[in-house]
Each structure stands twice: as structure tokens, then as C-alpha cells.
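#lab-general

N.A. 3:47 PM
ok so I finally got the sequence cleaned up, no stray characters, all 424 residues accounted for. can someone with queue access submit it? mine expired

B.Y. 3:52 PM
send it over

N.A. 3:53 PM
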Amino acid sequence: MDQPSGRSFMQVLCEKYSPENFPYRRGPGMGVHVPATPQGSPMKDRLNLPSVLVLNSCGITCAGDENEIAAFCAHVSELDLSDNKLEDWHEVSKIVSNVPHLEFLNLSSNPLSLSVLERRCAGSFAGVRKLVLNNSKASWETVHTILQELPDLEELFLCLNDYETVSCSPVCCQSLKLLHITDNNLQDWTEIRKLGIMFPSLDTLILANNNLMTIEESEDSLARLFPNLRSINLHKSGLHCWEDIDKLNSFPKLEEVKLLGIPLLQSYTTEERRKLLIARLPSIVKLNGSIVADGEREDSERFFIRYYMEFPEEEVPFRYHELVTKYGKLEPLAVVDLRPQSSVKVEVHFQDKVEEMSIRLDQTVAELKKHLKTVVQLSTSNMLLFYLDQEAPFGPEEMKYSSRALHSYGIRDGDKIYVEPRMK
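B.Y. 4:20 PM
back already:
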């Protein structure tokens, strides 16, 4: 059979991990020493091969010599082949079947949709626990074949594959714990429920950047569909009503939720979003990546009561009544204005005259002098100012620094400012 054109896996491997490009390092776990190869082989007398091989964006189209792959990659556990030109599953199988301890395989952005994955080829993936097929446009038929041949698969990445629907597998995959299926076009909950049927042991479901519009499922059915779900990511989904958020409580083991960028929350402040979500989701311990402390939960639940206490009865959520039972009816919080004072009324003394004036505290001493020119009939260069705090025990303080802001003196209503002419 003719060798496919392009660069082979072995060719790229020898180039990247040759002694010149990747120096040999001694010591356990640092690589392997490979004896000299037969005459005519492009290999050097040794290669430093770590157990994690990263060969992304290298133009790989085929496997190369399988005996050499087996000789060099017996210890390899992780392999990144993303963004290459692999379009034939048979070539992928030749590589993987000769890496017996492989647990992680990244095939993202390879045009593998151009060929059919046969079960005998998929069997070479049997030991893989983490498989990444992002932007590979892998069909659901391909995914089903993989699921049937990978009994220990724990993590599957299917992002950017233009999925609008989900095709159910004829068999359940009991081993899968994490499914990363972001940036697709899954809008209808009927497609998401198929994932629950296929992956009953799912612990983490990452659905970000799918325009999921609503969660159309009864509470009992949700609990049966995702009985082990601990974490769900719904960032930038299309959820737009609080009833969908409430339904997340139906997942019996759910404790981590991500819900940024959804239409429902756009009209709320950052504080309101977090507190209202925490109050509605009593079992979660982490929201949008941040731990929910006990104190924050109580603050949020009390906030929730006060937030809804003035709403019409028909608009008050059931969670409100649960929290009133827990905390009782709360009094509205007093409104306290904590903004710094912007102006004060002071007495301006000049010679034997006293005038009450309102002055802005954001201005400088120099600006105050300009403001006083018309009052005291002195030029700013011929003006000395003294500030007297009504409670200060040490007498007036000269305001000698022109650029100093008035608020830094701590001026309050009723304090006094004395103006004196500069002595010649």
C-alpha cells in the first residue's frame, strides 16, 4: 500500500526530540535512551522522549514506521496531535496502537470527518481515558463507535463541532465523568436530555456557548437523567427565566454552577446576580468559580427576602416563603448615604467682618483664594489663609500649600477660615 503523502508522525518526532533540539537529560522520568537504529534510518543514536509528547501544528498526515513508533513510545502516556492534517482514522490507529500506555489523546482540528472510523480501528484506543475531538467535526456515528470501544473513557471533549442535535448511542457509556461540549448549536433541551441518557455517571457537564433556551423537564425526570451531576457550566446560554434556575435544584448532587452571560441576568447588578442565584440554589458550594461561604449564603438569603418583600404576591417565588420560614420577616434596611461630603458652610473672618459661605471641598487652597478675592478685596498673592477646627485644641492651622485639596483638612460645617494680608 502506498504511504500517504506529507509528514509522518515518526519524522516529526525525530526532528523535535533529536539531541540538537531537545537535549538528552539523565535521571528517572526524564526520557528514554534509544540505541542506534539500523543503517539508513533517519533517527539519531538517541532521543529524549518525555512521557508527554506535544506534536501540534506539525503538518502530520500519516503514522510512519510502526515498529519505530513502538520502540520509541512504549512509555508515552499523553499525546497532543492537535491542528495537524490527519484525515484517515487508519493512520491515527497505527500511531495509537503502538503507544500501549496512552491515556490522553488530543486530535483537535484534524480533518477526521473525511473518513469513517471502523470498530477495529477504534479498538486501538481502548486504554484512552481522556479524548479531545474539538473542531474535528466528528460525526455522532464516530463518537458512538469510540464510546463502544473505550471502556475506560472518563473525559470527552466535543467542542466546536457544529452540533445542532445529539444522536443517542445504542449503548450507555457508564465510565464517562466529564463532557465538554461547548461552542456548538444545541438550543433545545430535548438534545441535552439525550446526553443524560448516554452518560448516566456524568459528574461534570460543560455546555457554555450553546444557545440553550430553557430546561423543559420535570423535576423528577431531571433527577433521573443526571443522578450524579456535580457541576454544570451554562455560561452564555439562552436561559431567560428564573424557573430554569430553580430546576437546577432537581439535580441531587449538584454543587457547582456557572451562569455568566445569560439573558436572564442582564438587567441585574453584579451584586444582585450573585446574591439572587445563591439564594435560589441552596445546595451549591461554588458559583461562577468562587466558593460560597456560610456567611455569604446567609447574607444572600436575607437579601433575597428583602428584595422580594414588596413584590405582589403572585410574583413572589416559592423560595421566598421557604426563607421567611427560616429567618422570619425582616425589616427593610435603613438607607445610609456613605458618600463623602462635597461642600460645607464655614465662617470667613477678615479684619472685623464675618461672612458665612458655602465652599466646595474638592477645590484646592489656590482655588479657594481666587473665590475669596472679591470678598476680602485682596489679591491671591497677598492673601494668607488659616483654618480653625472648632474642636481643635492647638489654634488655627495655616493653609500654606496652594495645591492641597480642602477635603484633606477635614473641614466641617461651622468651622472658621481666617484671611489676613501678607506682611510687606
